[in-house]
Amino acid sequence: MRLLQSGPMSAAPPPGLTLPDAWFVACRSQALGRRPLAVTLQDKPLVLFRGRGGAPAAFTDRCPHRNVPLSAGDVVAGELQCRYHGWRFSGDGQCVAVPGLVDGEVSLRSRCAETWACVEQQGFVWVYSTPDVVPSSAPFSFPHLGERPWGTVVREFEVEASVHAVVENTLDVPHTAFLHRGLFRTAQKSNVIDVVVRRHATWAEAEFIGEPAPKGLIGRLLAPGGGVTVHFDRFLLPSIAQVEYRLGERSHLYATSALTPVHDTCTRVFAVVTFKLPLPAWVVKPFVAPVASAIFAQDAVVLRQQTEQLRRFGGARYTSTELDVLGPQVTRLLKQAALAEETPAEVHEHRLRMKT
Q1: Which residues belong to CATH 3.90.380.10 in the chain?
Q2: How does pLDDT run across 107-157, given as a tens digit for each residue?
Q3: Pairing relation of β-strands 348-355 and 2-3?
Q4: SS3 call for 229
Q5: Burial bucket for residue 171 (CB in 10 Å: 0-12, 13-18, 19+)
Q6: Which are the contacts of 52, defined by CB distance < 8 A and separation ≥ 6?
Q7: Rounded Cα distance, 140 and 309, in Å
Q8: What CATH number does the domain located at 23-128 have?
Q9: CA–CA separation, 59 vs 91, rounded Å?
């Protein structure tokens, strides 16, 4: 374990940053029914559909024949049919029918659809960000999703901001006392705590040591009797932001956001809150869901304002302090991933103090 150099870092990932060879959530399982579904991933138009047996498949949303969007077509017997000339494609992208063609090979390579690896897992459909490859890794698994006695709240929304900005916002502690005042923390800061920041080649985390249970409605749900929490904030490549709170054996909460980059300044957020509290999940869920929705809505407004300012001033100009605990680490990891840089798989660490 090595010490991690800390200090201000003003640079943000450049516009147009794309992350190759990575899994992203394309949609929730329930959104993919009998009709093709058009989605966009890192400016790439894709079409999803359910092939034979209901397994999801993903193509570039363009028929190789005359460029008509395949998302405008139909699913026929588990095959995607173009609406223009009726060409049909199986889930692996093979052209299996060219109506009217008497002579000639139907499944020539040039007639195949460009495919993207696609997996359905835990109620989400994931797509790999590099086409025509077989991934060597599996998508991220949300902790305790579907397990008893854990409860779950899932929210999906779109934010007018980059993945970098959304990750920073999700893992930023100081803003919660102001933007989410009353829901999460208060502006009054009376506790000095230690923070251990760790960075690996594929993740970064901050461990907040000796932190009292947060004030506000969330704190009362998590720890009605108060106490000291175990608190971690994490970023996992390519775009998973996670907050974990634990108080003893009875109260445990994960707020995990899987972020899908649609365009440079448009991010789709699939937020999953899994929790185990002293009260049964069915009692707590009606309170957790609206509070989580209110917090996400407040974040979406300020992120849109931030993006508007970046356009107005022609780019980012940030000044950071050590309170921006994971910001520099997120920036570094995203840049390295975009450039496909090889980095040592050792853990770097540094410590700081902050007031909450």
Answers
A1: 151-355
A2: 888 999 999 999 999 999 999 999 999 999 999 999 999 998 899 999 999
A3: parallel
A4: strand
A5: buried
A6: 77, 78, 79, 90, 91
A7: 33
A8: 2.102.10.10
A9: 9
Which residue in the block uniquely carries the two structure tokens 């109260």? Answer: 251
CA dist., res. 329 & res. 344, Å (int): 15
Tokens linked to 291? 């509070």
Cβ distance 330 to 168 under 8 Å? yes
> Which stretches of the chain are DSSP H helices?
163-170, 176-179, 217-222, 281-313, 327-338
Degrees, nearest 5: CA angle 342-202-173: 135
Report the distance separating Cα 336 and Cα 265, nearest Å: 20
Q: What's the pLDDT tens digit per position in 233-261?
A: 999 999 999 999 888 777 899 999 999 99
Amino acid at 46: L
The CATH homologous superfamily to which domain 151-355 belongs is: Naphthalene 1,2-dioxygenase Alpha Subunit; Chain A, domain 1 (3.90.380.10)
Two structure tokens written together for 244 = 């974990």
> Which backbone phi and psi does 172 adopt, to 5 degrees?
-95, 115
